[in-house]
């Protein structure tokens, strides 16, 4: 008899090692412990063609799913240290590719765990892991359980946070849905009112038409009636007279004829209204073009993509506050990806809290370009706080701590001296930053550090600078520095590695007297603004002077520039020369913007300019020690955060090929690279 093992309530024939051949192929060996996973699954011979007959004769039933087969030949075993399990060489659709370490098909599992391979070891595998560190399996299991428990605790600790966030987002979603319903109701109501007003106006016009028609019709109808009567009298008299004339003349008819004669005389002089007493004009003057235009523009759905978690504030009003003096804070709204919003109308609130808990009034100005300005004045000294909320949520860094001080006379004098011409030498302390620039101190209200690295010291050697000013970046990953007092241009990689330099001092074409601005044209040519020579020169990418026969020489703006500082090139090939004058390649003035001051969009000696891929214009504001960003039409957008390492007289700037802003910090004799998020 063949041995039978119960599987799922049925007896299944099993052939073990050294037993006589059960099936016609004799290469099927099945063996398993009682608690194996396979005790719940039937095993069949995949090769025996008499499978159905065998099972029908011995078991009284025929398996229906022949594909449910595990082919285990010669009791083969393979230990996979990476999966921490043994593998069966066979196929079974419902069985995992790997089996837990407790199942090894005839191999007993050793109570060891290989730490290097992260695998439980069977006795056959122990020699292969002789040089590997091993620990008892129970210890490894305990460590794994402990690690798993720690991970579980970490995930569970996040559940309340996620639950709160879920509730909050659902609340916002519900508010959005409710707001949609309210606006839809307003639209329906407004247009219903408009329909009613249109119907009323329609009725008025129809009534006015009817009244006007009746008046004119009455006049004309009376005239018609009068003419009809006159025509009848004339016709009757004429008929009677003709009949009288047709008869024989006698004394008896003379009297009648005399009466006819008198009547005809009277009718001949009868004053009938032969000219129209009214006209037929009835026109409709309906100005529908303006109305259609108004209807076309009637109503606007106002929204922004701004989120509080990405929006940020900057400006001296966050820290440098003086009693009785207006302080200004600029808020830049950004979307979920950190991109600057370009439209206004966001719901923004600002509150300045005094030490006693009262609130200082202020004014929020919407610049309609995604930026807002909050201006406030505090009446006394002390520690204040500023809460800036966007859609009832604190923006990045809010609430801010404010320290209010009284201004000193020395500080007043220092403020008056701030922002002298770039050509004047200054002794004493460094230039103070603008009232709207980014704060210098990082002890309060820290925001994200946007500085990546800085390169350079004062000197005349390679990689050293003396009053560096212009900066440019090429699409090939090069950074170009106009080293003004060294009369040359130095070139670095995007990572700050020195590459080469070129330039010769002089006032002839091709020489540099005081290079203050540098840019790279889409053709690869290098454009240099020379402040003392009062022109813009063009060089090849290798640093060779370029001569244009049509221009007689490559000197743009010669005779029209008083002292060019910064230079850049936009996507259309326009050469932009500071002080904010935009020229076509042929030299035609296209745009100018800005004014003197410290407010948004104002300058105190602008020196550097660059244009990003979106057409935004970035300007280095030398006297205010800051970098401002404008759109292509010259409208102020935002600032670049330079608080990590404050600027001391920024000069030229540019955008690198990897999207960063590089600026020449002339007062610190280096150039700096910042992240740029526009």
UniProtKB/TrEMBL annotation:
Region spans: Disordered: 413-451
Instruction: Give residue ranges of the Filamin repeats.
Output: 303-404
What CDD domains does UniProt report for this protein, alphabetically? NHL_TRIM2_like
Question: Which GO BP terms sit in this record?
Answer: nervous system development; proteasome-mediated ubiquitin-dependent protein catabolic process; protein polyubiquitination
**EC numbers:** 2.3.2.27
The record's similarity note reads: Belongs to the TRIM/RBCC family.
Q: Show the catalytic activity.
A: S-ubiquitinyl-[E2 ubiquitin-conjugating enzyme]-L-cysteine + [acceptor protein]-L-lysine = [E2 ubiquitin-conjugating enzyme]-L-cysteine + N(6)-ubiquitinyl-[acceptor protein]-L-lysine
Output this protein's name. Answer: RING-type E3 ubiquitin transferase
* SMART domains for this protein: BBC, IG_FLMN
**Ranges annotated as biased composition (Basic residues):** 417-430
**Could you tell me which residue ranges the B box-type domain spans?**
110-137
List the Gene Ontology MF annotations in alphabetical order.
ubiquitin protein ligase activity; zinc ion binding
